[in-house]
Design a protein that fits this description.
single chain; 266 residues; mainly alpha; two-stranded antiparallel sheet; two-stranded antiparallel ribbon; 45% helix
C-alpha cells in the first residue's frame, strides 16, 4: 500500500501491467458472445479503475511529497504497530486528498483468530472465544478493548495535529467513526451498539456528547426466523444517514434507516 501511494517506480510497474491487460482485453472482447461481453465489461472496468487511480497518484506528486511518513519495514510486525502503520497510510491518503472516504477493519468479526496482543498476554488468546465467556474473561476483554482504543486515540491525535487550509485540523474536518456490529458478543445481540464518533465534519456535528439513542431498545427479538429491531430502537443506519447528509450527500434514506439523529447536529 505504501509503495503504491508514494513510490513512482512501483506505480509505473502497475501501469505497465494494466496497459498490457487492457490491450489484451480489447482484442479479446470482440470475439466474445453478448453475455460474456457483459461479464468481461465488468472486469475491463475494474482494470480501468486501477489505471485511473495510478494516473491520479502520478498527478499528485507534489501533494504526496508533503506527507511525512517513513518507509515501512518488511517482515512481521507487532499488532499495535501494524494497526498504527496502516492507520498512518489512511491518514496520509486523507491528508493528501487521494480520497475523502476510508474504511479500516482492525479485526475480523466472523471467524476465530488467535491474537497475540503484544504485552497483553503471554500467549495467543482468541478474542472470539473470550467474548463468549465474558464472566470468566472480563479482565482480559477489558485489556483488549483498551488496546484497540489506544490505537484509535493514536489516529485521532495524529489527525488533530494536521492543520488544513481552512485553519482547522484534519480531525475537525472529517467524521471518524469507531464501532462494531455487535452489542453483546456472547449472544450476538446487535442492539445497543457502542459507537464512537470523533471529528465534527467541519462543524456539522456537536462533539463531546454521550447519546443513548437505544434506551428503549432492549434485546433483539427473533420473529419467524428473522431478527427485528426492538420497538423504540434506533437503527445504526440512522447514523450513516446522518453522516452522509452532514458531509453533503443529500439522502432521504439509507438501508433500514428511519430518519436522522437530530441530536448529533450542531
Amino acid at each position: 500500500a505504501y509503495r503504491r501511494l508514494f513510490k513512482s517506480d512501483e506505480r509505473s510497474a502497475y501501469k505497465n501491467i494494466t496497459d498490457l491487460v487492457l490491450d489484451d482485453a480489447r482484442s479479446l472482447k470482440k470475439d466474445l458472445g453478448y453475455s460474456d461481453q457483459q461479464k468481461f465489461g465488468e472486469y475491463f472496468e475494474s482494470i480501468r479503475a486501477i489505471e485511473t487511480q495510478i494516473s491520479r497518484l502520478d498527478g499528485m506528486k507534489a501533494e504526496l511529497s508533503k506527507v511525512d511518513l517513513d518507509v515501512p519495514m518488511d517482515g512481521k510486525m507487532p499488532r499495535g504497530e501494524y494497526i498504527r502503520l496502516m492507520g498512518d497510510l489512511m491518514v496520509a491518503s486523507l491528508q493528501s486528498g487521494l480520497t475523502n472516504v476510508a474504511t479500516f477493519m482492525v479485526g475480523p468479526e466472523r471467524w476465530d483468530t488467535p491474537y497475540l496482543f503484544e504485552s497483553l498476554f503471554d500467549k495467543p488468546k482468541s478474542h472470539h472465544q473470550m467474548s463468549h465467556n465474558q464472566g470468566k474473561f472480563i479482565q482480559d476483554l477489558i485489556k483488549v478493548d483498551q488496546f484497540y482504543m489506544e490505537q484509535f486515540a493514536y489516529l485521532c491525535n495524529k489527525m488533530n495535529r494536521i492543520k488544513e487550509a481552512n485553519g482547522k485540523t484534519l480531525l475537525d474536518n472529517i467524521i471518524f467513526t469507531y464501532g462494531s456490529g455487535l452489542g453483546d458478543g456472547s449472544t450476538h445481540q446487535y442492539s445497543a451498539l457502542p459507537i464512537l464518533v470523533a471529528g465534527s465534519g467541519g462543524g456539522k456535528f456537536i462533539t463531546g456528547k454521550h447519546l443513548n439513542v437505544s434506551a428503549k431498545s432492549g434485546l433483539v427479538k427473533k420473529v419467524g426466523g428473522t431478527y427485528i429491531t426492538p420497538e423504540g430502537g434506533v437503527p445504526l443506519a440512522n447514523l450513516w444517514l446522518s453522516q452522509a447528509n452532514a458531509m453533503g450527500l443529500k439522502l432521504d434514506r439509507f438501508a433500514d434507516s428511519t430518519g436522522m439523529i437530530s441530536s448529533l447536529f450542531a
